[in-house]
Every structure is written in C-alpha cells, then in structure tokens.
C-alpha cells in the first residue's frame, strides 16, 4: 500500500497482464493471461505448416515489452525480433559450451531478452549448447529469479521421447535441462513454452508438466489421440484436428480458456527468415540441358583432393629443387638462431605469463568467454612489443588454465606441477583450469577450496555446478573427497600423494 493525500492509502497500479493472441469463432478477441501463463506453462503442438512458429511469434511480440524472454531457436526463425524489440541474438556457432552457460546466467542478472540461434549446428551440438544455456538460467542465484518466458521451438529435438543418433551424454544433458525447465522452473521464475511438431516424439515427463495447450492441425492417429486426451476431449472428437485451418488452434488451460476453444491467431509485425517457398510460374531452361548440367567443372571449383597439378617440365623441376634447397638452408639457419636465443625465448614466455597474470587480476576476467580473453591477450601482447601472434588459441588455453589456477612461480617450476599439467592435458579444455587450481592447493598444502572459489575458476557463480565438477573428477578416478572429524572437506589426488588441508565447502 502507498500513502497518499490526507492519510488515505491506495494500492499501486497493477499492470494489465492480458495479451491478445487472435480471434475466437464469434469474432471476439482471444486473450491470454500472461501472469497465469508464468505459473502454469504452455505446450504448442502442430504439424509442419500448421502455423506453430507464427503462433510463437505472435505470443513473443505481444509480450515483448511486458516480460523478459529467452528463445531457443534451432532454425534461426526468431532472430528478426532483435530489430523490432531489441533482443540480443547469440549465434551458438560462435561460442563454446562454457560461454553459453555463463550467458544464461548473465542474461538473467541483467534482465536482457535473448535469442539463442543454433542454426548450422549438428543435432548433438544443438542439444549440448541448449542444455548449457538453460543450465545457466536455472542455476542463477536467488536474487536474480525474475520472471522469464523461455520459448523452445522444435522441443522434440531437445527432449526426445526415444534415443536417436546423438550421443547419450548430449541427450541426457538436454533432456535433464528441459525437465528442469518444465518441472522445477516455476519457482525460479522460468515459464516454459515448448512447441513440437509431434507429441509422440516429445518426452512425456516434459509434456505432462504443461497446464495450457494450443493444439493445431495434425494427421497421425497417435498424435490426435494424445492431443484429445490432453484437452479432455473424447476420442471420436480427435478427428477434428485434421480439419483445422492453418493458423487455427484449439486452446485450453487456466491462462487461455476453461473449455476447449478454437482460436485464429492474429497477424505479426516481424518476419521469419525461413519462410516457406512461394509457388511461381515454372519456366524451363532455354539452353540445352546437357550443356548446363554436365559442363566440365573448372579446376578452381573442384575440391582440392580432385585437382591434378600438371607435371612440371625439366627447367621448372630444377627451379623447384633449387627453391627447396634454399628453404632447407633457411630452416637450418632459423634452428641455429633459436638455439642461440634460448634465453630470449624464455624471457619472452615470462613476459607473456606476466601479461596473463595481469589480466587475471581483473575480477570480471573469470566470467568472460575465452575468445574475448584471447583477443584481449593479443592486444596486450602487441602493446608490450611481443608481436601479433604471441600464442595460438590452443597454447593460450593451456596458459590460461595455468594462470587461473593461481600457481606461484616456485611451484610452477617443480616436477609435481609438471605432472599436474600433464594430467590436466588429457581433460576437456574447460576443466583444465579447475583441475590445476585443485592440484595447486594440494601440492602447496593449502585448505581445500570452497565451492564458490571453484565455481569462479570455472567461470560461473553456480556452486551447484562446482559440486558437479568435483563429482565428475571423482568419477574419473582422479581425486577423492573425504570429510574430517569436524565436517571439513579434504581433497586427495589418486596416485600422487598430493592432499589439501581441511577446508569448508561453503566458506
């Protein structure tokens, strides 16, 4: 209540949460209660061409200025929302799995609407990238649990009912993230809106959590029967789903209608990049088809493995041999020069290490994507006079993992640290920094790092993710966790004798 005037109290204005999705058969508006939708979730089903993506676009446009949005977009259909409504478009092909996990956290912290464009990635990558992004949104600290509409188009790709050609690891990660979104997301402010072409292909435990339904045109008996069951209709009425026009859906749910209601979806302001083909008059080619289709392919258009270089003539061959001899002599001279300047190379590496250590002093560096850090490193190296190509990306990743571990110069020159780096090299790149950070604590006999410290090295604020990383390393028989008599955590590396001092996990 807000005091106003002579001691009178009035309630603050309440935002209207109703959005218009289209029209009902009688001509009136078909409205959706956005506030109710945030609490009860939505499932959209319709065969290809039924207007499913159009429905999602209408819903997103109508609510874009009322609530934060996150769209998992496997085909790049919704990137056009950025121009009209200011959504941030993240191209999955340009970012790592770890970077997308961090992006999921940060988009909730800064309350930015995001379109995750997974176009161009294979199915396995799409599942793992989507799981990472959803995981970051799900694991954000409680103070950032603002309401978010999470729209997942083609949900059967991310929560399949049966195993497909993707890896088991990717399928488990994606299905787990989708299950968390639909089953546990409400308390965290995440309102799942999932759309699928076929209910039979969507995992039942994901579909069952929705309380609102918009069912479009479908033809297969099994899908019509499931749609009828979800809407509380009799099986004999299921045939009606075959006759629905494009853009017409049957709605039911607390945010839509208390009884099945036919809805014609309204127009949209933005356009999809992947609109279907338009029928145009067919004009056969006038030139001879044989010459158009089977003309010889120019050499420069052939793949490299199909090109055949002409045999060199005798003078050309002598020229190539002479050039080869000069190249060999040049290589030998460079090798001799490198031997003479071994100390200079060591100094150069020390300067690059100093640049990295300086970068790590910035608190934000732990949460910046590796490509961004790499570009920053190259700029700093140029300023320091180390040239444009101080390190390639692979060597930079190894150096970054060492820098993030916080190892001292004395420890880094020990044989124990060399063994730790050798063990870390067999792990995925995003886990090497965490492994070396823990190894450094054990080698230097310092207290076992807390979950928050481990999470920061990994590039996240989620302590739950830190605990899962420790569990994974333990499953790989790399280390053992145990508790001392006071409940503090002790970490021991298998086969090395390295062990941390006791430390509190939540300190």
TrEMBL record:
Transmembrane stretches, start-end: none
Q: Where in the sequence does UniProt note compositional bias of the Polar residues kind?
A: 408-423
Domain Helicase HerA central stretches:
29-84
Q: Region Disordered: what ranges? A: 325-347, 404-423
Pfam entry (one) = DUF87
- Hey, what's the signal peptide range on this chain? none
Against SUPFAM superfamilies, the record matches this protein to: P-loop containing nucleoside triphosphate hydrolases
Q: What is this protein called?
A: Helicase HerA central domain-containing protein
